[in-house]
Design goal:
The complex is a heterodimer. Chain A is about 10% helix and about 40% strand. Chain A is built from 2 helices and 8 strands; from the N terminus they run H-H-E-E-E-E-E-E-E-E. Chain A has helices at about 10, 20-25, and strands at about 30-35, 40, 55-60, 65-75, 85-90, 95-100, 110-120, 120-130. In chain A, the strands form 2 sheets. In chain A, strands 4-5-6-8-7 form a 5-stranded mixed β-barrel. A 3-stranded antiparallel beta sheet of chain A has the order 2-1-3. The relative contact order of chain A is 0.17. Helices cover about 35% and strands about 20% of the residues of chain B. In chain B, the strands form 2 sheets. Chain B has a 9-stranded mixed beta sheet with strand order 3-2-4-7-1-8-11-10-9, with helices on both faces. Chain B has a two-stranded antiparallel ribbon with strand order 5-6. In chain B, a hairpin with a 4-residue loop joins strand 10 and strand 11. The mean pLDDT of chain B is about 95. The chains are: A mainly beta, B alpha/beta. At the A-B interface, strand 4, strand 5, strand 6, strand 7 and strand 8 of A face helix 5, helix 6 and strand 5 of B.
Amino acid sequence: MNGDRPSVAEDVRGVPDYDDWRELLEAGILMGSQCGSCGQTTATPHRRCIECGSEHLNGTELPTTGEVYSETTINVTPTGFDEPYQIAIIDLDGTRLTARIAGTVEIADRVRFSDTITTNGCPAPVFEPIE
Amino acid sequence: MARACVVGAGMTHFGVHDKPLEELFAEAALSAIHDAGVDGDEIDSLYFGNAMGGITENDTHLAPKLASYLGLQGIPCQRFEDACATSSNAFKHAVQSVEAGVHDVVLVGGAERCTPETGLDTKEMTRTFASASHRTYEQPLGLTFPGVFALLTKRHMYEYGTTEEQLAEVAVKNHDHGRYNPRAHFGGQVDVAEVLDSPIVADPFHLMDCCPFSDGASAVIVVSDELAESFRGEPVDVTGVGHRTDTVPIADKNAPVETTAAKEAATEAYEQAGISADNIDFAEVHDCFTGAEVIAIEALGLVPEGEGGPVTKRGETHLSGEMPVNPSGGLKAKGHPIGATGTAQIVELTEQLRGEVGERQVPDATKAVAHNLGGDTATAVVTVMEAGQ
């Protein structure tokens, strides 16, 4: 492991925000937001806990493998996107994240975080099937 | 006990309109005003819905603009935006305002243009609709609105065994209903094979599983219960309006497939009305995609969880069935001009409960529910209306 590789523990000071999320995503880390009061975890940041309303949220490293909760292939794409692509909601040990799929998956397939794509400067996670 | 009454209702044909929003809305508003028999100077306030005019037509600050065209400038006018639930939320606020005695007579409605008449093609309009998905965590993925409801529907199919044929039956039924609605964008006899043979938009949805891009406007006149009898229009009671929201983005929703906001809004609306789902005679639901109707009738408690597909296949939600759903043709056939859809559902409930819709009339209907979703189901407004005593 590269010594310059950022980590959630070292990089996220205080409540995690979008800037933390995208920087870590681009470095290969899925940063979730965990409530210090009730433990609720989401895969993207909120400013207060969506379960209990606590402001005490901390960055937490999510697993990079999970299971497909649902999926669809977008054939009619919006401006800025061309060829059809598959999008899936991934269940990462109980925390869900929406991602692009490299390859093809079905519900309940195992997948791993493999890459990012960037649209208009905004990165998004890409997952691939685990053979 | 009515929270408020609708004494006038009107809407344009839903379809393709090459005219400015103010003219589109005026047609619906005048129809509602004439139906109610309201004098222009009796209207105290305008509650107006438009979801995307700022993006599609570079047209904002619409409430006073549209009011001015109708000679209503001066009164308080406000514009609402909650994606596809836009004018239902305007309606909720109108009901609250007359119930609280803030206003006596309110004009409420919505207008939107979504067809290529706006100058935007399918890809541009697909991008515009996707503005309701999460800006940083969903839009960069290329998630579209057919995609959003496809994700929910695919999971529903996985959990309950709902089939593509059952989804197609929703389209077949709503197109059949649309035949009897002269204001519907589409309507006609189609079969399951035609739906399944149409091109795929976002699987499991084929083109014919999707509502069309439509232009149109709708409007109603809302008055207090005490004043209702003083207007020419036959009053229909608003007995419950439930409004709930859910987490955005979709991945953070606790139970995306059940559409929690809609379930809770329905519970709230039924409680206000003092009824249960068993008392409902028909429903207008948010069938932006066929799978959305299957999920909607379960969320409203009209059918057991997971039974939406089989119930549709058996014909129970057809006009001739036990629980007619979308007698207007729904968003699927009637059309879906986003900001006009919520009050168009209220127009259908009003006219049905008065018994004046002709061939698509639900016989002896006295209680009905309207279900309107916004965005990825993060907004839900459920309204119960009852025939006047």
